[in-house]
Write a structure and sequence with these properties.
This protein is α+β, with helices and mostly antiparallel strands. The protein has 4 domains: about 90 residues, eRF1 domain 2 (Nucleotidyltransferase, domain 5), CATH 3.30.420; about 170 residues, OB fold (Dihydrolipoamide Acetyltransferase, E2P) (Beta Barrel), CATH 2.40.50; about 120 residues, 3-Layer(aba) Sandwich (Aminopeptidase); about 70 residues, Hypothetical Protein Ychn, Chain: A, CATH 3.40.1260. The chain is about 30% helix and about 25% strand. Helix 1 crosses helix 2 and helix 9 packs across helix 10. The radius of gyration is 29 Å and the shape is globular. About 0% of the residues have low confidence.
């Protein structure tokens, strides 16, 4: 096994409870996917569900697919499923009640995993992916991946797929994936036949199955990584499990024969994710602060509503003027941000606060670099120009949970807020509670139960205020430190 830096490679780490896969480009970690046995992804799974509740005000419904929480289905994901020629207009908007009723059985596919307290997101437009093609059984038309830019190649692929669908009398939609660039007609034909067989089996099963039944389960991460990410640019797929290597070889032999030669077994004693510092990159991806080589830094804050990113010069003071310093820092940050979004799997609305720049050319260049940095992202990204407030608003399609939500949990002390009341604040809260209870009950003394930090503050810096309260109450106040209390927890007991 060579130690040279390869253009692209995939590292796969397997253990009984978890599979991790990392995409490496030029020796730098770009993307990490993790799938745990207890929390397998539901993306692309197809269910026969039952509509449990219709919400006309939201133009949506909840569907029971057999999970703990009902899944969400919007009318936009049902439009024209039953009527391919029907068109929505502003004067005649679609009504969810035209498509579904409560208690109705419905065929649906998961497009977004359940995230925290939100159920899975569904679609009525079934899509079956393979190596080169995606079959759309309920739609029509042929679409070519936008990442295939060569006009002649796009025309060739469209003609090949046109002939294949016409020959097989297929009345379905087809998406030609990026990986199909350069693929011959035979390979595309094999893909299409494979997808047809899968859909025929799903359709047949759906007729007999009861509601809340799983009809189709997508490939596990181990195989899915090979199917979706192993492009012609990948020079090596390295896996540390002999058994699973054989599994991949068998899959590649049938579906991806051109990738058989890049599959290798990792046999070194050093953990596979120590290569290219993948393990360290994972740890760093959980930190808010990212240091830039120039001395500046980027702060990434993930919230329920959106992700905010702040760019600062930090220690970088530049050599010319403030405008140039801001421009150079922003350039470096824009390149880093695209990679961090992939690595952390951040999705939804993302707002970036770049350092203010006066020159329009500089502002445009920053947006251009940011857009270039997300070009290779498998998730769809949309980047807007810098606003009047100096902010860049962008979206990244969110399907699976972020790296932080997968690997971490809310802090017990702060309930996930990221902060906790300081000891001084708690002392003042205790005094207010004394005021609240004063005069309501008869008592001989007061017992205050609190965290050790709070007790120490009351006995030292706040001692004079504690004495004033004893005089005001005419009763002694006794303090007791509780090791099991969080710093913002306390009890005032009247004895």
């Amino acid at each position: 096994m060579t130690d040279r830096i390869l253009k692209e490679e995939i590292l796969i780490n397997v253990n009984p409870r978890e599979v991790r896969a990392a995409l490496i480009e030029d020796g730098v970690v770009q993307e990490v996917s993790i799938e745990r046995t207890a929390h397998s992804s539901l993306i692309n799974n197809i269910y026969k569900g039952k509509v449990s509740r219709v919400l006309p005000g939201m133009q949506a419904c909840f569907v029971d697919i057999g999970l703990d929480r009902t899944a969400f289905l919007h009318v936009d994901e049902l439009l024209h499923v039953n009527d391919k020629n029907k068109k929505d207009t502003e004067d005649n908007p679609e009504d969810i009640r035209e498509f579904v009723t409560e208690g109705q059985d419905i065929l649906v596919q998961v497009v977004k995993d359940p995230i925290r307290d939100k159920g899975a997101r569904l679609t009525g437009f079934i899509a079956l992916p393979s190596r080169f093609l995606v079959l759309l059984p309920i739609q029509t038309g042929i679409r070519i991946s936008g990442k295939i830019e060569d006009g002649a190649e796009r025309k060739r692929l469209r003609n090949v797929v046109d002939r294949l669908t016409e020959k097989a009398s297929i009345d379905c939609g087809i998406i030609v994936r990026t990986a199909a660039e350069g693929a011959n007609a035979e390979a595309l034909h094999t893909d299409l036949q494979f997808l047809q067989k899968i859909w025929a089996a799903i359709h047949e099963q759906s007729v007999e199955a009861t509601a809340r039944t799983l009809l189709y389960e997508d490939l596990p991460l181990l195989v899915r990584m090979l199917r979706d990410m192993a492009t012609d640019q990948v020079e090596r797929v390295l896996i540390d499990s002999k058994e699973d290597l054989q599994r991949l070889q068998e899959f590649a032999e049938v579906f991806l024969p051109d990738l058989e030669s890049v599959l290798e077994l990792y046999e070194q004693n050093q953990p596979i994710f120590d290569l290219h510092d993948v393990e360290d990159e994972l740890k760093n991806a959980l930190e808010k602060n990212i240091s830039l080589k120039s001395g500046g830094h980027v702060i990434i804050e993930q919230t329920e509503a959106m992700t905010t990113i702040d760019v600062n010069t930090g220690k970088y003071v530049g050599r010319q003027n403030l405008e140039q310093t801001a421009y150079q820092t922003n350039l470096e940050a824009a390149e880093i941000i695209g990679r961090q979004l992939r690595l952390r799997n951040l999705g939804g609305i993302i707002v970036i606060d770049f350092i203010d720049m006066d020159k329009p050319a500089h502002r445009d260049r920053i947006v251009e670099v940011l857009r270039d940095s997300v070009l290779k992202d498998h998730a769809h990204c949309h980047v807007t120009p810098i606003s009047e407030l100096g902010l860049v608003e962008m979206t990244r399609k969110r399907t699976r949970v972020s790296l932080q939500h997968l690997l971490c949990e809310d802090c017990e002390q702060c309930d996930g807020r990221g902060f906790i009341s300081n000891a001084e604040t708690v002392c003042l809260d205790i005094f207010r509670e004394l005021l609240r209870q004063y005069g309501q009950f008869k008592f001989k003394e007061v017992l205050v139960l609190a965290h050790q930090d709070v007790v120490e503050l009351l006995l030292n810096e706040q001692a004079i205020h504690l004495t004033e309260w004893e005089e005001r109450l005419g009763k002694p106040i006794r303090l007791q430190a509780e090791s099991l209390y969080l710093r913002d927890e306390f009890d005032v007991v009247l004895i």
